[in-house]
């Protein structure tokens, strides 16, 4: 019985040890280290005590219901293992390495899956970006095509509108041309009718003269000078010859000139008893007068239309005018100040030589054309200026430049503008010398005009003096500050920033920023704005 119990106890102990060993799978190293020590420390009596205790535990286990007992300590287990003779070592299996490998493999698998997911995300984003770029490119191309189509539509509409306007203008021009053609035809027919009436009138007068002339025996066989046919179409023939020689534009207006006959030459309608018969040579001067008028009109038209003696104004297109103005601005912007001063001086010298003046103020004594001559030239058939004998023109200025070898040359448009500006200046001077209307409504006397000009000249001289003083003071200060700044820079002086600030200040103020001490003394300046410093009030009246 004891052996059976012993075997059972041993078996249970082995199971307990096995169970304990299973629980301590990860303490294998500690157990191996302490195994040799436990074998030497324990002996047989202790084993007997342990065996008795085990028997008692077995009896208790058979008599009582099975309960879970507390696990023995590790040291006791190791002692029992060392003491039992039939004890076999049970090798513990370390699953930690397998678990680690499993965990590592799962982590690596998870990492690979995450990497693949990230790659797929990146590829998806790249694909989406590519698709987005493609769609944007396609949309941009479609927008460009749409814009081009809209431009083409607008151009087509504009072209259609222009064609419609052009057709309308052509129709208007055709109507105007037809109207002018009809007017010319009416004028020609009217001229023909006037010529017929004129010839009939003279024929009737000649017949009356022939009836009043007594017959002379010596002249009976000779034809009467008034009996030959009257050249009634001489004016019309002259006009037709000129038209055939040179075409007449729409701006030419033909005016019929009626021959003036003195009252003494015109026969009055009285009875044949009171009026003596006129002489035979009265009709001949009228014919000579008409021939002279015809020749004069023909010569004048030939000079205007064929010989081109009267220059016609050239009209430039707006585009050409803009190009010329742009070239002139570029030419003026590229020139230096001393070059312009030289050219302006030459123009002033030319004016002084032509008008025989020493300064611009002398031009106020210039004697202009009379009002009657200007009115006759502008609104009537009065003579105008001779285009071949002008006071001076651009050719005179160019001739002077060639003879004197000017160092600077400019275009014709440049000199034309300079001449026009100087003419305007002289016109202003001349107009200032003309009598003005006073407050009483009358014109100024010569003494009042002289006093007004003297006062105005004094004011201009004062302003010029002040401007010159300001300019000289600015140049002097600017030069001195430049030298001082250079000197301070080379010497590394401490007060260099102050002088540099003063130099910038003077440069910023410029010529107009220079003060004049004598300004309040010389000029009578009327104060327009008065600044009044007031303390704060709730209501400012």
TrEMBL record:
Region (Disordered): 1-78, 260-282
Regions of compositional bias (Acidic residues) in chain numbering: 24-35
Coiled-coil region list: 110-197
Keywords: Coiled coil
Highest taxon of source: Eukaryota
Protein name listed in UniProt: Uncharacterized protein
Organism: Suillus fuscotomentosus
Compositional bias (Basic and acidic residues): 1-14
């Amino acid at each position: 019985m004891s052996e059976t119990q012993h075997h059972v106890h041993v078996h249970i102990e082995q199971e307990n040890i096995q169970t304990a060993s299973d629980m301590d799978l990860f303490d294998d190293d500690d157990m191996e280290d302490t195994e040799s020590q436990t074998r030497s420390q324990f002996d047989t009596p202790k084993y007997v005590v342990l065996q008795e205790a085990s028997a008692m535990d077995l009896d208790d286990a058979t008599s009582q219901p099975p309960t879970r007992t507390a696990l023995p300590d590790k040291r006791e287990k190791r002692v029992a293992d060392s003491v039992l003779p039939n004890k076999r070592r049970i090798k513990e299996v370390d699953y930690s390495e397998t678990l680690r490998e499993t965990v590592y493999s799962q982590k690596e698998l998870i990492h690979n899956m995450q990497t693949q997911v990230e790659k797929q995300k990146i590829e998806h984003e790249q694909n989406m970006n590519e698709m987005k770029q493609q769609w944007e490119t396609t949309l941009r191309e479609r927008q460009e095509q749409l814009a081009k189509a809209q431009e083409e539509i607008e151009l087509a509409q504009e072209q259609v509108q222009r064609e419609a306007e052009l057709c309308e203008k052509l129709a208007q021009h055709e109507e105007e041309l037809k109207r002018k053609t009809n007017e010319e035809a009416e004028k020609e027919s009217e001229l023909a009718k006037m010529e017929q009436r004129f010839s009939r009138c003279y024929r009737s007068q000649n017949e009356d003269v022939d009836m009043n002339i007594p017959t002379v025996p010596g002249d009976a066989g000779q034809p009467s000078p008034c009996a030959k046919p009257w050249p009634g179409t001489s004016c019309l023939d002259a006009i037709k010859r000129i038209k055939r020689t040179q075409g007449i534009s729409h701006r030419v207006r033909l005016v019929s000139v009626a021959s003036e006959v003195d009252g003494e030459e015109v026969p009055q309608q009285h009875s044949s008893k009171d009026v003596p018969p006129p002489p035979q040579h009265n009709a001949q001067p009228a014919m000579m007068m008409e021939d002279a008028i015809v020749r004069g009109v023909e010569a004048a038209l030939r000079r205007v239309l064929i010989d081109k003696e009267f220059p016609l104004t050239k009209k430039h297109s707006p585009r050409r005018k803009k190009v010329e103005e742009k070239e002139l601005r570029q030419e003026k912007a590229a020139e230096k100040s001393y070059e312009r001063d030289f050219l302006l001086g030459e123009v002033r010298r030319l004016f002084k030589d032509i008008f025989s003046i020493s300064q611009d103020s002398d031009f106020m004594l210039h004697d202009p054309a009379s009002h009657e001559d200007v009115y006759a030239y502008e609104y009537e058939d009065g003579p105008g200026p001779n285009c071949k004998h002008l006071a001076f023109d651009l050719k005179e200025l160019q001739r002077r430049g060639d003879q004197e070898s000017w160092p600077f040359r400019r275009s014709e448009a440049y000199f034309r503008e300079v001449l026009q500006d100087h003419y305007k200046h002289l016109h202003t001077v001349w107009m200032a010398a003309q009598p003005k209307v006073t407050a009483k409504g009358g014109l100024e006397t010569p003494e009042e005009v002289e006093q007004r000009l003297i006062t105005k000249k004094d004011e201009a001289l004062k302003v010029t003096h002040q401007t010159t003083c300001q300019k000289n003071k600015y140049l002097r200060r600017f030069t001195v500050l430049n030298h001082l700044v250079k000197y301070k820079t080379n010497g590394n002086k401490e007060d260099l920033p102050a002088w540099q600030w003063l130099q910038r200040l003077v440069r910023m103020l410029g010529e107009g920023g220079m003060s004049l001490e004598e300004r309040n003394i010389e000029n009578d300046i009327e104060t327009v704005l008065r600044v009044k410093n007031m303390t704060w009030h709730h209501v400012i009246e």
